[in-house]
Amino acid sequence: MRRSSRHQPGTAAPSREDAAAPAGLPPVGAGEVIATAAVPTDGAKVRSSHPLARYLRRRLGVSVLLLIGVTLVTFLLTNLVPSNPAVANLGQQAGSDPKVVAAFNAKYGLNRPLPVQYVIYLKNLLHGDLGTSLLTHQPVLSDLGTAIPATMELALGAIVLSTLIGVSFGVFSAIRRGRAVDQGLRVISLIGISVPTFWLALLSYYIFYYKLNIAPGSGRLSPTMTPPPHVTGLYTVDALLAGQWSTFADAAAHLMLPTLVLTAYTVGLLTRFTRSAILEVLDQDFVRAARAKGLPSRIVLRRYVLRAALVPILTLIGLAFGSLLSGTVLVESVFAWPGIGAYAYQAASHLDLPGIMGVGLFVGIVFLAVNFIVDLLYGVIDPRVRVS
Amino acid sequence: MTQATAPAELPIESLVRRRRWLRLPPAWRTPLAVIGATIALAWVIIALVGPLIWPYNPLTQSAHLLQAPSAVHWFGTDELGRDVFSRVLAGARVTIPLALLLVIMSMLVGASLGAIAGFFGRWVDETIMRITDLVMAFPTVILAMVVAAALGPSLFNAVLAALIVSWPGYCRVTRGLVLALRNADYVLANRLLGYGPWRSLRLDVLPNVVGPVLVLASLDIGTAALLLSGLSFLGLGAKPPTAEWGSMISDAVQNFSDWWLGVFPGLAIVTLVMAFNFLGDTLRDALDPRTASIVGKAEQV
Amino acid sequence: MNISYRKLRWAVGVATVTCVVAACGSSGGSSPAASSSSSPSLVVDTYFQLKTVDPSREFEGTGQMVDKALYDTLITFKGADTTTLIPDLATSWSLSPDAKTLTLTLAKGRVFSDGSPVTSADVVFTLDRVAGIEGNPSFLMAGVTASAPNPSTVVLTSKTPNPQLPYILTSPSLGILNEKVVKAHGGTTTQKDAAETYLNSQSAGSGPYVLSSLNVSSQVKLVANPKYNGPEKPTYGTVIIQNVQPPTQKINVQRGDAQLALDLTGNQVQGIGGNLQVSAGPSGVIIFLLLNQSPAISKLTSNADFDTAVKDAINYPALLPLAGAGTQPATGVIPTIFTGSLPAGQGLAYNLAGAKKALAASGLAGKSVTLNYPSDNSPSGVNMNTIAQAVQSQLQAIGVKVSLAPQPTATELENYRDGKEQIGLWDWSPDYPDAADYLNFGPGALVGLRANWTPAKAPQVTQLATAASAAGASDRAAAYQAFQKAMNATGPFIPLFQPANHLVVAASVTNAVYNALWTVDLAALGAKK
Fold first, then answer.
1. pTM listed for this prediction
2. Does A83 contact chain B (CB < 8 Å)?
3. Which of A310, B130, B162, C182 has the most CB atoms at less than 10 Å from its CB?
């Protein structure tokens, strides 16, 4: 039996990298070269170590290296900018006083040579200390601790809603290919990915809040509401856990509009991608065989088509979630949502170096974690990945 | 007479028109394609013709500040008294060329690296793939802001920042395509006949890769336009007083109740991006025989 | 196909349910802030300029407003007036004839939020701390030493004559701290001070409010100080200050979600009616152009004729509507709300013909120059991009090509302070409410050096500046006016206008007046019965 890690073109198990390509291109073979298992020669069942575990260990090692790479690149880039954080963060009079500037630089360790600063940063990182923000004067870790759950709430809501709607639309559109419904859904999804998010946010805010008074105002909660006791940082979940129904309703109401804006784009993306992924699978022999066996369409769709198409769809959902977590600056600025996007923008425009590094690190972790989990799911869903 | 004549009842012109229409591949005959092509063509013409159709100079300020749309100013005036309609038309001259530039540059950089990675394999492949991972793990906005702060905000620097985050997509796809083709029989045969690796890459593999990559690029023009206008919205792209749609929307945020400042540039972005997306979709359908042949199979499920 | 329809319906169903819940939530959740409890609460919307509320470290707009409520100063102002000094923690004070010694007598019986009495030791500790930790406001105490001969007297000694010291003491950055509490949490009078974190979560002052919670990017919550025994007992038991963009401020205050909106521009307050009151006041901010006097930076702006041409080419009245309704023309670098400013009509004027003549005399027509300015700065709601583009177009009219170079403030500040800008567009808000602050614009002074304007280039103006700083109480106004006239004629600064600040107030709130130093005195607000 040929044990090749390369998949032939046209099989329904494309690699993750290729699934990252936009919808429509035929998934071609060969992604990562996965460690091949040793063939037992003497009948003994035990292999040297589980291939999936080895693969994951290797991925973990590479991810850690990549994270260090992200910190290095962020550090270099922010220090390339020709200006002076002390000047940016002190007042007019104070910034002109060399003693005050020196005190500022000493306090934040800015007066040491760059490589030393970087090494100190890495050392502190290993202790869980991400430094103190030059802007908020708080530890970056606690700043991120409040900002991340805010964006997480948005991203989770958006991805759940987009997955439900997008995958359904995609499946529906694929099996009704060529009909009016398909055309209509294609147009809707195309419009979804054509609308600029920042414009949609402004427009929906203007119409639904300013003119129609349906949606509540900016921020996560109405000003008179106090946040629920902190468990996860997600106001809706925490309010539910504490049994505060009015707080839950208020938080959910504030969540609605930004989530819908974020969903608009992701739904379009998911619909298109699901549609083409399903279409790829529909052409396979095994689907035809299942039909020929006389299985009802429902079973064919669920157990054969969807399962095969699930891998690339899951990949895209993972990537979409990752980009939602790290790229919501525009929506957060319109809705005054105190999330990671707003924090990144503030940090970048005030040259808050520890803040920028913290955000870069977080985004890097998100990206690598998402890839890692998707690889794990690959192994779970597609047995060929496990044994090859 | 050897020339065939049409039957007396049918007028010749309609027959000729119908034949011309039928000569188009099926994918191009959909309403989607027609609408997309028309709008995209309209915007390109607007960009090319430029000053000839602007009713006012987009840069001329006047004392008529923040006026609502009227017969004199179809889209109203902005906070410096400039005509919004002219500025929206002028914005096409900025966005379309830059989006094309971004796509072409990303494609060249990404596809080259991806082809090299896919073809030569081993540590070259590993290195390039790790670099793409690193770049993809980087938040776009921060990168753009840092580039703008380091080099000064300008449209070209925005394109540069966008280029840095856009090339990995092309790289990965090209790599995948090349990996599939690398071991095809005809490639191996030519290698046996003495082709060096570069020659093999250039003559055997790349011509078959170009097609799908071009399709990808055409699908990407709309995304590029969105990315550039997003960067301008954040103040990292177009410098004032350039008329650019993203920065016009950003100015509109200050004057929230003057809806015409933000609505019209936004609609311009939407129609342009939509048109290019429609076109790209149609192109994909037209060039990809596999999905085209699936019509009807879906009915059986 | 059945199964897809099912999925579709399920998805739509979930979405509908969520919308229904949200609609219920929005109608129930956004209750008006003036609750039915015994002491009403107040919501204030502002665009945050806030880094810390440790008074010895803060020197930003929002920080001043918050610290005015949390901490008392020795001397203060009332309402919108910034010329008449009012006693606060000090009941009386006297300045020595040589203006180098200020003796203050403390009020009796005033206590901090923990009940302990306010003594001169606390005052000395606070003022030493401001000077010693080298934070943003430490320059206020430059050259000043404090001592406490007895528990109710404080003596401030300055190295050079300091007639503006009583005015400086009104700044909320010099709010008096509770020495014992601050020291207990790591506070010292040196750079090793570690009390900032504590002071950002709890306040240690004698003011009408205490700090309940602080998030520098979203919200500050203040609660009435139960132990307060000063003259200004607050009406509102809870004050919530939210960080909101100006357009959203307008929406919030119109819908009743907030009672005060502090950052709306003149254009945005047009057409606000209903039960909202709009009060405008001069902000004390000056927007100005800077022309670099160094030939190495620009051969154009260092040419005196070119500078005259620019001063004449600016259409000052046309800039006023661009900056928003209520904007006042600027007569000189000193805003009209302070003593010593030039009267109306004596400032620079628009003179197109004169501009063209001066440009021809300079021989620099048709050349180009760069206008640098911070792109993300909106002093008093003025959009710097708009003003820059207007200036560009006005200079274009006389044949000077201007290219705009906006940068984020953080980056542009460096160029500004290093004197590298050719033409700069900046704002100046008063460090303290006295004309002496504007000596910073003189040759060789802080801002003068940013235009590379040295005393060697302008000996006459330097003389007038020295005379003004040494003038006695009755001659000060005239001396500062002479200084400004000379500056307008030969200096590198072109004051453009003074933006106004607009307060939009709900009808239920009374006594809301704008103050140029701390925006609004939260403790002085009243509620309509």
1. 0.80
2. yes
3. B162
